[in-house]
Amino acid sequence: MTDQIQRLFDAKAATWPQKYAPGGPLTGRLATIAQAVLPHVPPGGRVLDLGCGTGELACSLASAGLRATGCDISRPMLRGAAAARDTGGRVGWVQLSSGWRRLPFAATAFDAVVASSVLEYAADPAAILRECTRVLRPGGVVVCTVPDLRHPVRWLEWLARAIGRITPVRAMGRRWPRWDAYQAYLRASRQRHPARWWLAAARQAGLSPARSPSWHSASRPASRRCQALRLFVFYRPGQTVGPA
Asked: What's the domain count of the chain?
């Protein structure tokens, strides 16, 4: 399955930056994630963008004054990030192996970890969250987004997934590349869970829900085009949440 996910995103690398272009479907994600991260990280703090794709989010956080590191299993995505972004040394790019189990970073290396639309593809999201906890300083935050099962688009995806399992439909789908690619995405995006499941997985990983005036532990992102996602802010216990 990991190889399938890697192929899925390798194929998307060439057009992925278009999603963050003005008016693109992911443009609002940059502001949404920044608003969740910045209140908890000191100026010049270190943030890890896990599953960074072509680097738009990591560069957005760097432009806000943070030191960002982006990592991904997709080599074409990282090549696009390194080639297209002049970050003045504020962002580093790290290639992960497709079957990685341990992040190539020291313990407590980061003030924040962002996993935006990453955990839904993981075989063991709790294991990913444990690694996020390990590389996070005490009091640092993990900001992640996952599919929001309350949103109607997720109900339609459930229906499309069920239809896609019908043998004649699956056979005909091979004639329609867009439908076939959509079904590949639905198969890869397998971690579809309610909020209580994610809260339990975070607790297993040693994380606690963050409480702040502007963000709840679980909420829908404000951007209309991001509303099919649920946003979580967790912290690693050890000191008061907020800028060091």
From this structure: 2
Same domain, 122 and 214: yes
Number of other CB atoms surrounding residue 70 within 10 Å: 30
Q: Quick one: 200 and 171 in the same domain? A: no
Q: Where are the alpha helices (DSSP H) in the chain?
A: 2-12, 27-37, 56-63, 75-84, 125-134, 152-164, 167-173, 177-188, 195-204
For each successive 10 residues of the chain (244 residues), what is the average pLDDT? 86 93 91 95 96 95 95 95 74 93 97 97 96 97 96 92 76 71 89 96 95 49 66 87 50
CA distances, 206 to each of 109, 141, 234, 236 (Å): 16, 12, 10, 7
How far apart are alpha carbons 71 and 111 in whole angstroms?
Answer: 16
Is residue 178 domain-shared with residue 200, that is, in the same domain?
A: no
Whichever domain contains 93, its CATH number is 3.40.50.150
Sequence-distant (≥ 6) Cβ neighbours of residue 50 within 8 angstroms: 71, 103, 113, 114, 115, 118, 128, 132
106 and 161 housed in the same domain: no
Task: Write down the residue that tokens 């949404």 correspond to.
Answer: 32
Q: How far is CA 185 from CA 28, 79, 210, in A?
A: 21, 22, 31
Q: What is the pTM of this model?
A: 0.88
Q: In this structure, which amino acid lies at residue 25? A: P
Q: Flag whether 241 is in a domain.
A: no
